From TrEMBL:
Keyword Mitochondrion listed: no
Phylogenetic classification of the source organism: Bacteria, Bacillati, Actinomycetota, Actinomycetes, Micrococcales
Keywords of the record: Glycosidase, Hydrolase
Protein name: Glycoside hydrolase family 43 protein
Every Beta-xylosidase C-terminal Concanavalin A-like domain range: 314-489
InterPro entries, sorted: ConA-like_dom_sf, GH43_C2, Glyco_hydro_43, Glyco_hydro_beta-prop_sf, Glycosyl_Hydrlase_43
Pfam families: GH43_C2 (PF17851), Glyco_hydro_43 (PF04616)
Gene Ontology molecular function: any one: hydrolase activity
Family (UniProt): Belongs to the glycosyl hydrolase 43 family.
Length: 504
């Protein structure tokens, strides 16, 4: 197992759920307010994962257009039965608890049906739904009972369960309470597993930050009662100096060599002292062993960084966007114009800035701790640039147009700018994330952004900005850094995108 790369999925891919179908494994993760929503990755060896599609690619499948920041697609469960993939998820502060199906994991997926209350009204209130079939084909939805409202998270009701009629999408009973962990806050992420004649209920508790952990209980019925494992938590990095922190929110599967694996979320703070997690919550894997007493033991998560990557996109040769592009509360196709010019991507600004909930921003997840992105642009007909976005209140950008270049840091209500004149409209804009260098005046607990522009072959660095400001801990966001090109006014012509990074 130690040969597996960790993270399995770099960049913000929280709340992983995994299913094995034949000789392939499929992973689904959360995407919150971004579209397309709920990526599906496939692997045949658990090492190399291919993004094969998304569950939510069409308007209406998720109601994220007006969802509050970090609402939207929360915590899928992906399962497969009788030739059909099933995915249940909560469109938080959006449509509610949904059930999607597909015969091909790459899609197309169904429109998504609400799991309704007994009387057919409203959805069953909760997050982190799991779907499981009992011996008599009874369908169970087990979830973290939570009263969500338009403003956000309400009262936690613990782990609950309803039997459902999956054809009519009706709950056959009012939610029943199950085992809710060992007393940690926010019992959530429940998953039910039938193993050797027993039913195991695995949950996350402690909250998705440094106190996060995984606990398990077992019983003779999927409806309980459940007895807690003597060695809970099975997984937690709390109060340790392990390089992968916040570990929790797991899902179990039998891996390629026939042993059990646990996929789970974690963060990679740059250093261990009060460190900051730039990339958000990523998907990791670790080994599971079943002990003689019938309880599982789960190994601590070991880092095994993937080799660095380089992406080089020349838009004179690209006529469609690849699957890694994402946009905020709208589809990439609704803002990216590949038809206006044969040699470039055009972003049409309409006055919306990065402070808006739906900016004209086309992004990709930052996947490496050390990272450099360059975008070649022509700003003769507009104002826009290159940005690292956590959300509309936390972003860093280098913006050009009208004969000037501005480096800008927006941190909650604080804004700082550095401006320089530039004699050309054909520019290269650069944002690099690098470790702090000795004597640079920046703390070792995060990285440093370097913002620069190249005009007429001359590169000029405008600003260095503390990377702590764009981290999970500061932004308190469920997502992670997304780097993208954007337009504010007029047309921004993007001719080339290059990104390279590694985890050294
Ligand atoms: C997810 C839940 C959680 O549904 O955050 O903090 C939500 N815990 O497990 C989004 O990741």
């Amino acid at each position: 197992m130690t040969t597996l790369f960790n993270p399995l999925l770099n960049g913000f891919h929280p709340d992983p759920s995994v299913v094995r179908v034949g000789d392939d494994w499929f992973l689904a993760t959360s995407t919150f307010e971004y579209l397309p929503g709920i990526p599906i990755h496939r692997s045949s060896d658990f090492e190399n994962w291919e993004l094969i599609g998304h569950v939510a690619t069409r308007e209406g499948q998720l109601a994220v257009a007006d969802v509050p920041t970090a609402g939207g697609a929360w915590a899928p469960t992906l399962r497969h039965r009788d030739g059909v993939f099933h995915l249940v998820i909560t469109d938080a502060m959006g449509r509610g608890m949904l059930h999607f199906t597909a015969t091909d994991a790459a899609g197309p997926w169904s429109d998504g049906d609400l799991i309704l209350r007994q009387d057919g009204t409203g959805s069953v209130d909760g997050i982190d739904p799991d779907i499981a079939w009992g011996e008599d084909d009874t369908v169970y939805i087990t979830f973290s009972g939570l009263l969500l409202s338009g403003e956000g998270v309400g009262q936690h009701l613990g782990i609950q369960q309803v039997r459902v009629d999956l054809d009519r999408h009706i709950a056959l009973e009012e939610p029943r309470s199950l085992w809710s962990g060992t007393g940690g806050q926010f019992p959530e992420a429940p998953h039910l597993y039938p193993v050797d004649g027993r039913w195991y209920l695995m949950i996350a508790e402690g909250g998705t930050e440094r106190g996060h952990g995984i606990s398990i209980a077992r019983g003779d019925s999927p409806e309980g009662p459940f007895e807690t494992a003597p060695q809970n938590p099975l997984v937690s990095a709390r109060s340790t100096i392990r390089p992968v922190q916040n570990t929790g929110h797991g899902d179990l599967v039998i891996g390629p060599d026939g042993t059990w694996l646990c996929v789970l979320l974690g963060v990679r703070p740059r250093s261990m002292t009060r460190a900051f997690s730039a990339l958000g919550r990523e998907t990791f894997v670790t080994a599971v062993r079943w002990e003689d007493d019938g309880w599982p033991a789960i190994d601590p998560v070991l880092l095994h960084a993937r080799p660095g990557t380089r992406v080089d996109i020349d838009f004179s040769t690209v006529r469609e966007l690849d699957r890694e592009w994402i946009a905020v509360r709208q589809t990439p196709g609704s803002i990216a114009d590949l038809d206006a010019r044969a040699d470039a991507l055009v972003l049409h600004g309409d006055g919306r800035t990065l402070d808006d909930p739906r900016p004209v921003f086309l992004g990709r997840r930052q996947e490496h701790l050390t990272n450099a992105v360059t975008v070649a642009v022509d700003v003769s007909a507009g104002v826009g640039g290159l940005a690292v976005r956590y959300d509309e209140r936390f972003h860093v950008e280098i913006e050009a147009g009208g004969g000037a270049v501005v480096a800008r840091a927006v941190v909650a209500d604080l804004v700082q700018e550095w401006t320089a004149p530039v004699a050309s409209d054909v520019l290269e804009l650069h944002i690099e994330s690098r470790p702090p260098h000795a004597g640079g005046g920046f703390p070792r607990t995060s990285d440093v952004f370097h913002l620069a522009v190249t005009a007429d072959g001359v590169r000029q660095e405008l600003a260095q900005i503390d990377g702590r400001f764009l981290s999970s801990e500061t932004a308190e966001s469920f997502t992670g850094r997304v780097i993208g090109a954007y337009a504010v006014t007029g047309d921004i012509v993007v001719t080339r995108w290059t990104a390279e990074g590694d985890d050294e």
